[in-house]
Amino acid sequence: MSAPAASLTDAQGSAARPSRFRARRPRAPKVRVAHPGAILAFVLPFGILFGLFYLVPIGYAIYESLLVIKREGTFGAATEVFGGLSQYVLVFQNGPFWQSIGRVLAFGVVQVPIMLGLALLFALLLDSPLLRGKRFFRLAFFVPYAVPGVIAAIMWGYLYSPNLSPFRALTENIDFLSADLVLWSIANVVTWVYVGYNMLIIYSALLAIPTELYEAARLDGAGQLRIAWSVKIPLIMPAIVLTAIFSIIGTLQLLAEPQVFRSFSSAVTSTFTPNLTVYTTSSIPNVNLAAAFSVVLALATFILSFTFLKFTQRKEAK
Amino acid sequence: MSTMIPAPAQPRRGIRPAQSKSPQVPRAQRESPFARGGALIVMGVFTLYFLVPIWWLLVAASKNRAQFNTTNPLWFADFSLFENIGNLVAYRDGVYLKWMLNSALYAGGGAFIGTLIAGMCGYALAKYRFPGRELIFNVVLGGVLVPATALALPLFLIFSQISLTNTFWSVFLPSLVSPFGVYLARIYASASVPDELIEAARLDGAGEVRTFFTVSVRMMVPALVTVFLFQFVAIWNNFFLPLIMLRDETLFPVTLGLYAWNSQVNQIPVLRDYVLIGALLSIIPLIIIFLLLQRFWRNGLSAGSVK
Among the entry's GO cellular component annotations, what is one (chain A) (predicted)? Predict the structure, then answer.
């Protein structure tokens, strides 16, 4: 997860509009493109790298996922041959993989609303006249975002530890690294890192609302709670949707935190999250199956975030 | 649906302190002390939640081994932070410094070049009309939704075909691509770089590329700084790609190096001290960068957000 606020919704809408427009109009006579050389010089560097490091890998992953390893006899040389969708059959029969999908979905259903709820609460408080010292709070809450996921996981690993933690009175009695709790201990690490980041995105959307909009409500006697609920939240809904989409993507991709927690807790297995499954499978090595896992995971991520986007758009339109 | 009005066109309360403060003081007094107290308590409690772990890390990194477990974990004992740092830096011929340098190269170089090419592409998509423009933009937007981790494995497979795994380039090159950067640069350029200005530069006889670098880039600075920062953080935090690509310890970024040490703590107990001190040092550069560039990224961030 790395991208700040951006309205994919609107950009896609406005990007689609002109093309629809063009289709309806009679085809205009071909206009010579001005400055073709400059356009190439601007677009090509990114275009080439995007092709090499985004499009080619996606294509290659799909290609590899369609191959199977064939051996001649037990000790014969292994060759890759076309195997159709047989890797995907293995993916769908793979119990641990679907368990790991279920695990991150449960994680997302609980953690994303809590994280975004907190981020929204803090952003609204920062935007309200109730609070002094806003600069301090804004900065203090954002600092964890400067801590890389790996480092945050290492740090919290020690904080959870029954014999090294500064909160031993707590960690000696509750085993945060046990099989029952470790998923939620990881959820806490992710929340700790990203609340401030999401808070800032929502807060900058709040700053963009013209003050007059709620001055009127204020004069009508509406309290801060009422203004937040009826005026501010509806207006910043697109920013919230955006943070939700990036959080969903981030959740399905969980890797660094659970990978670090493997050295603190034996409850984190080598197939704890989908990406850990990909990593483990590829280091067996069974790259064809790992590629198929990757493709399914990327598709699932894409479908989930896209559906969420469409779903919220329809709700807004109502 | 709301419409998008990019930031530069619209003055915001956040950057008009003189105007926003005067009406806010009497308003604040009108709020009930109960609500204000509640708000302060909520924010105070969560300030502890966010800062105590980092405070603990600072305190733990400043203690010697004997005191780590015997003294108050949230307060300093004998202050031996600098001694500890000295030991960390000297350990195994300064491999830790090498990791920090690697991280700085991957993240600094990658984010700088990545921002430049994303800025050029976004600018071209905003300011020139050419066939395929919307197609390119939509493909790039789709790229924003493709998780970078899904690309790590196929990249590894491709790079191993051309014997490029376990090299600096295997981590550096893929980090250059930022579809989100193109998106933000396009939105920002179409709002904040006036066509008349480009036209005026053309009349003065400046070439297109020169106009971009001398005139347009200046107007896009907030967006470019934002892209740079977020790409810097993304590369600095990246874990899967180096994990899968690199075997040679001297090529590790600091995150992967500390991860490797942390998973050997049981065999080599002294590493625990180094992991904690190293973790503390590794977050300082990012905090400094965020503080230095605060003014820029706060404005750039709202450029992409929806009004």
Answer: plasma membrane
